[in-house]
């Protein structure tokens, strides 16, 4: 049957990509349908019960700054929060949270069910409806398992690990999308028929343990930030969302640390002959940065021990996730290896570990908007683009949902730059480089990471999100208040001067480390190592007047206070301090971005005949013809396209203008 209503956007899949895609399209006012196998698994964490980490936390903050769900759901479900790299520079500091799986899913579902313009429907999608064929093909809707036909103007596919998914435990294997769930085989076959370029990847997960059978006395306790026993005990717990407060978090729990040992490694080696990875049963490439324990033992043969974090899965369960022993070895080997580990001698396995192989699509066949080049209106996001991780999936989902919505509204796609967001880095890496293994985000992938920090994701993106229709009134007014206070205080610090005459030597010594020899603006004093904003204010005491030489605010008193800003006070102070302390570096990075902007964003005509570009090598011509980069910057990042080739292209473009 034909479903009576037509939708603007249909999203297939209710994982991290699908839920953000559907919410984004609906926030923009598009009539949206989220179609998924099972409404009970909306927002399901297939693997580790944690969100964030270095690079990943940055993406979560960006999703949040654009009005997305992941950060707020984590704040509602987080049972342990930590700021990683807290002693390092602000660019690489990152938030990570353990989440209660049940609370996380509930928070996501609650948002979905209360989102205007969004409908949910439970059923597998088996087919795509297309109008036209060849280069003019356009998606027109989807067909479900029972033959219901839904019409839509755009479709976002986020099928995760489900397309022709195959689960491996030892030499046994069976079809599955993840443990206990059916794969999407018909849809996989249909996509193969459409000849979208694809391949196979694999990922794996550890066995889960019953906490009642773990001897925690033999493990080392690891409390979260702000929890008793941590270095930051008593301080407020970290939060993920710019809109969250620590009071939103449920009860906090510690994690525990133990280690593998030589005996564990010998047991693992004894199972190699029955490992699907080493017997050739698994063809897909796995994530290098999340290796299985057998892979670690093989690759780092000289290492006698590997760390394992025992992570609680939630407040209402005894289940534990042993992070570090992902495996697809046979169950008898899994049990023996687990029980060889200190504290786990009597551990009961609740669920065996396994590996899964699945179809992914070459992201180089996507436009920068994540629309497939082959079929108009069909967008891909999440694990099917060759990535791994909830955060990477969520960011892509929001992005594809947004661009599907913009297309339906007849607007140009939003394409963030590499200097603007990790999302820009992620998209650009995928569409220009493709993947040879599951792609995960790291801060090292971003060349402008000093300006792409977790702490300023809202300052980089919330105004854009508002313009695009993604940011609601509550977030916008909270953000505007914070941004305005920051701008005014920053201006005041730059225009309020301190003269040596007004500052006693002992006071200068106490706060600045030494006396000042000439007049300084407060902003410049804040740049001195070890000088914080509040210490500067204690020094200021409201005595100074704006220098007559500069354009200043009328009132020299501080505009930032706990009374006026409430919970945002700390965030504003942090921004002021970072802006002052890293001013030189940030300025240099901005100059670099400006210098490369003209070249970076120079658009390449869609019909450019690379064979007509004089002196380009055949290899470069073939690569550019196959990949059709949209800008000169993208062309430069395709492997094998040399700076010399870019110069030739530039000359060609200038001549043909
Ligand atoms: P998923 O979360 O897989 O969601 C896909 C959704 O689409 C599901 O709701 C599914 O029911 C639905 N769906 C699929 N096909 C259809 C269809 N035809 N019709 C209707 N609905 C459909 N990530 C890491 O970062 N590190 C790891 O170590 C790691 N290990 C993993 C181990 C395993 C065993 C698995 C399964 C995943 C692992 N992941 C890991 C990956 C992580 O789970 C994914 O990156 C993330 O969940 C991807 O999100 P997604 O939204 O793209 O897809």
TrEMBL record:
Database matches in InterPro entries: FAD/NAD-bd_sf, GIDA_C_N, MnmG, MnmG-rel, MnmG-rel_CS, MnmG_C, MnmG_C_subdom, MnmG_C_subdom_sf
Binding-site residues for NAD(+), renumbered to this chain: 286-300
Pfam families in alphabetical order: GIDA, GIDA_C_1st, SAM_GIDA_C
Cofactor requirement: FAD
SMART domains: GIDA_assoc_3
GO process terms (BP): cell division; tRNA methylation; tRNA wobble uridine modification
Residues in tRNA uridine 5-carboxymethylaminomethyl modification enzyme C-terminal subdomain domain copies: 580-651
Intracellular or extracellular location(s): Cytoplasm
SUPFAM superfamilies noted in UniProt: FAD/NAD(P)-binding domain
Keywords: Cell cycle, Cell division, Cytoplasm, FAD, Flavoprotein, NAD, tRNA processing
Positions that bind FAD: 13-18
Main location: cytoplasm
PANTHER family: GLUCOSE INHIBITED DIVISION PROTEIN A, PROTEIN MTO1 HOMOLOG, MITOCHONDRIAL
Subunit structure: Homodimer. Heterotetramer of two MnmE and two MnmG subunits.
Function text: NAD-binding protein involved in the addition of a carboxymethylaminomethyl (cmnm) group at the wobble position (U34) of certain tRNAs, forming tRNA-cmnm(5)s(2)U34.
Protein name as annotated: tRNA uridine 5-carboxymethylaminomethyl modification enzyme MnmG
Gene: mnmG
């Amino acid at each position: 049957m034909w479903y009576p209503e037509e939708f603007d956007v249909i999203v297939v899949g209710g994982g991290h990509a699908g839920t953000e895609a559907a919410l984004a399209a609906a926030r923009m006012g598009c009539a949206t349908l989220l179609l998924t196998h099972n409404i009970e698994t909306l927002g399901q964490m297939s693997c580790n019960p944690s969100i964030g980490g270095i690079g990943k936390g940055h993406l979560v903050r960006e999703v949040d700054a654009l009005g997305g769900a992941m950060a707020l759901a984590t704040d509602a479900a987080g049972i342990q929060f930590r700021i990683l790299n807290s002693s390092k520079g602000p660019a690489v500091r990152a938030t990570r949270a353990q989440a209660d799986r049940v609370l996380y899913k509930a928070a996501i579902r609650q948002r979905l069910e209360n989102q205007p313009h969004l409908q949910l429907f439970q059923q597998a999608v088996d087919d795509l409806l297309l109008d036209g064929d060849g280069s003019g093909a356009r998606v027109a809707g989807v067909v479900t398992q029972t033959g219901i036909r839904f019409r839509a103007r755009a479709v976002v596919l986020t099928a995760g690990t489900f397309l022709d998914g195959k689960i491996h435990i030892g030499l046994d294997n069976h079809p599955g999308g993840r443990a206990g769930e059916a794969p999407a085989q018909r849809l996989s076959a249909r996509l193969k028929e459409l000849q979208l370029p694809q391949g196979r990847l694999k990922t794996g997960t550890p066995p889960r343990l019953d906490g009642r059978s773990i001897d925690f006395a033999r493990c080392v306790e690891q409390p979260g930030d702000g929890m008793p026993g941590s270095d930051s005990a008593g301080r407020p717990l970290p939060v993920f969302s710019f809109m969250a407060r620590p009071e939103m978090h449920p009860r906090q729990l510690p994690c525990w640390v133990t280690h593998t040992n030589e005996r564990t490694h010998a047991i693992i080696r004894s199972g190699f002959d029955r490992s699907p990875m080493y017997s050739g049963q698994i063809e897909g490439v796995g994530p290098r940065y999340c290796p299985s324990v057998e892979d670690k033992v093989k690759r780092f043969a000289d290492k006698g021990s590997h760390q394992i974090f025992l992570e609680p899965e939630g407040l209402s369960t005894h289940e534990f996730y042993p992070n570090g022993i992902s495996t697809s070895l046979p169950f008898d080997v899994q049990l023996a290896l687990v029980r060889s580990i200190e504290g786990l001698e009597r551990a009961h396995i609740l669920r065996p570990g396994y590996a899964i192989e699945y179809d992914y699509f070459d992201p180089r066949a996507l436009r920068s908007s994540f629309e497939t080049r082959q079929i108009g209106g069909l967008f891909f996001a999440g694990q099917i683009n060759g990535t791994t991780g909830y955060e990477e999936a969520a960011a892509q989902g929001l992005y594809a949902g947004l661009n599907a919505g913009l297309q339906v509204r007849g607007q140009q796609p939003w394409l963030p730059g590499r200097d603007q967001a990790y999302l820009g880095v992620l998209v650009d890496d995928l569409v220009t480089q493709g993947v040879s293994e599951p792609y995960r985000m790291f801060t090292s992938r971003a060349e402008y990471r000093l300006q792409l920090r977790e702490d300023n994701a809202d300052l980089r993106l919330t105004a854009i999100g508002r313009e695009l229709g993604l940011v609601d009134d509550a977030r916008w007014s909270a953000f505007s208040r914070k941004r305005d206070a920051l701008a005014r205080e920053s201006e005041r610090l730059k225009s309020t001067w301190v003269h040596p005459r007004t500052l006693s030597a002992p006071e200068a010594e106490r706060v600045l480390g030494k006396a000042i020899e000439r007049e300084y603006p407060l902003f410049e004093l804040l740049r001195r190592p070890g000088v914080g904003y509040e210490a500067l204010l204690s020094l200021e005491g409201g005595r100074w007047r704006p220098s007559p030489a500069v354009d200043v605010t009328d009132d020299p008193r501080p505009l930032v206070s706990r009374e006026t800003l409430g919970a945002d006070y700390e965030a504003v102070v942090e921004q002021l301090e970072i802006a002052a302390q890293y001013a030189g570096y940030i300025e240099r990075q901005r100059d670099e971005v400006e210098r490369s902007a003209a070249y970076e964003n120079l658009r390449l005509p869609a019909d450019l005949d690379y064979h007509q570009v004089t002196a380009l090598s055949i290899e470069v011509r073939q690569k550019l013809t196959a990949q059709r980069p949209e800008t000169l910057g993208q062309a430069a990042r395709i492997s094998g396209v040399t700076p010399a080739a870019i110069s030739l292209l530039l000359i060609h473009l200038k001549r043909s203008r």
